[in-house]
């Protein structure tokens, strides 16, 4: 092992495999076989064989999920999805990379506002690789006894190194704060240093993901520790429409109404949309009505924020394509019946008598 550093050791082995690929192919192949057999790890006095527990509470320090089952596929920005697929492909094609003197991505930092799909992306990667997902919520292991927090973090990282898995460090900013933050005590700053060293020495062949909602709080040294830094943007209108279709699970839903619902959620995240859609579906199931109608009814306050020029045509479209009465559409959207008549290509003959 080079200086006790598994990353340096792996790099040296890959270099040797590449150097002797033509002149000593059997030797090069043997090196690749060693690398392929598992991550090259630092020597440690003990190897964690069972899930780590807090020394005081005896509660699990991580959530372990396997097999990973997704109710809905991630709806992601195209550039983000492309990078995630490359990470998966690299780990599936590990031998090919090793023979070229390369290694798959070891570490990635997922950055973005709450609800934009960071945790879902980590779950998707674990599912695609058929590996357990180990989640360490750093905000939950923070202890008033910071020395214990450091021990807990080390226990989790030692365990994650000892098993084939994808490790997700959630809420990274809870620990890896700026070390020039004068409000933080010295023990926390030392913990940041330890965490950075652990990320630096993460072994080849293993995959460590970290997620943060508050990139501005991270210590500047954190950024360069990761092989990949991936920004998750807020969903655009295309993503919102895809979300409405996926969460509603109604193939016959009118496209214009789907687009309208997506418009009502502009500026929101997909998690909020998903919660509302499933609440609407539960309400519709209990009342025997349409999920679309139930969702539209839930969005009353959102219609009030639409520009007047958009609200009228949108209200008329609802009248034409849903089971809502003219009175219901008026009460829901705030659009007068005269305006509805103006914009609507057809009006219901007896529905406005309610």
What does this 3D model show about the protein?
With 354 residues, the chain is an alpha/beta fold. The chain folds into two domains: 48-232, Rossmann fold, CATH 3.40.50.300; 237-353, no CATH class. Helices cover 51% and strands 8% of the residues. The protein is built from 17 helices and six strands. It has helices at 6-19, 25-37, 78-92, 94-99, 118-129, 138-141, 146-162, 186-200, 220-223, 237-248, 255-264, 270-287, 291-298, 300-303, 308-321, 326-333, 337-343, and strands spanning 63-65, 107-112, 133-137, 166-170, 207-212, 228-232. Strands 1-3-4-5-2-6 form a six-stranded mixed sheet, sandwiched between helices. 37% of the residues are buried. Residues 41-48 and 346-354 have low confidence and may be disordered.
- The fraction of residues assigned to DSSP E strands is 5-15%
Report the helical percentage.
Answer: 40-55%
- Tell me the CATH topology of the largest domain: Rossmann fold
With helices defined by DSSP (H or I, 4 residues minimum), what is the helix count? 17
Q: Which structural class matches the secondary elements?
A: alpha/beta
Main sheet, how many strands, which sense, barrel?
A: 6 strands, mixed
Spatial strand arrangement across the major sheet: 1-3-4-5-2-6
Q: Superfamily at the CATH H level of the largest domain?
A: P-loop containing nucleotide triphosphate hydrolases
Poorly predicted residue ranges: 41-48, 346-354
Count the strands? 6
């Amino acid at each position: 092992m080079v200086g006790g550093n598994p990353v340096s050791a792996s790099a040296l082995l890959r270099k040797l495999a590449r150097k002797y690929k033509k002149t000593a192919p059997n030797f090069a192949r043997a090196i690749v076989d060693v690398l392929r057999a598992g991550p090259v790890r630092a020597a440690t006095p003990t190897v964690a064989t069972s899930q780590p527990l807090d020394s005081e509470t005896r509660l699990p320090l991580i959530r372990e999920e396997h097999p990973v089952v997704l109710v809905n596929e991630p709806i992601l920005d195209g550039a983000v999805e492309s990078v995630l697929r490359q990470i998966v492909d690299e780990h599936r094609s590990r031998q090919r990379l090793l023979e070229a003197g390369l290694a798959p991505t070891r570490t990635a930092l997922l950055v973005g506002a709450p609800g934009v799909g960071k945790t879902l992306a980590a779950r998707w990667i674990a599912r695609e690789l058929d590996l357990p997902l180990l989640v360490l919520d750093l905000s939950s292991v923070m202890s008033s006894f910071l020395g214990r927090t450091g021990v807990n973090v080390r226990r989790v990282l030692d365990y994650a190194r000892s098993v084939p898995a994808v490790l997700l460090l959630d809420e990274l900013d809870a620990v890896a704060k700026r070390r020039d933050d004068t409000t933080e005590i010295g023990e926390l700053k030392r913990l940041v240093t330890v965490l950075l060293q652990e990320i630096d020495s993460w072994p080849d062949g293993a995959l460590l993901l970290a997620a943060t909602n508050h990139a501005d709080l991270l210590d500047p040294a954190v950024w360069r520790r990761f092989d990949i830094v991936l920004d998750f943007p807020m969903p655009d209108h295309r993503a919102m429409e895809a979300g409405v279709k996926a969460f509603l699970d109604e193939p016959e839903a009118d496209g214009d109404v789907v687009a309208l619902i997506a418009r009502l959620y502009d500026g929101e995240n997909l998690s909020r949309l998903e919660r509302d859609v499933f609440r609407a579906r539960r309400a519709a199931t209990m009342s025997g009505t349409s999920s679309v109608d139930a969702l539209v009814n839930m969005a009353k306050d959102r219609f009030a924020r639409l520009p007047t020029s958009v609200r009228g045509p949108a209200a008329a479209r609802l009248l034409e394509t849903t089971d809502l009465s003219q009175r219901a559409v008026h009460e829901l959207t705030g659009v007068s019946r005269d305006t509805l008549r103006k914009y609507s290509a057809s009006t219901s003959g007896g529905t406005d008598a309610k």
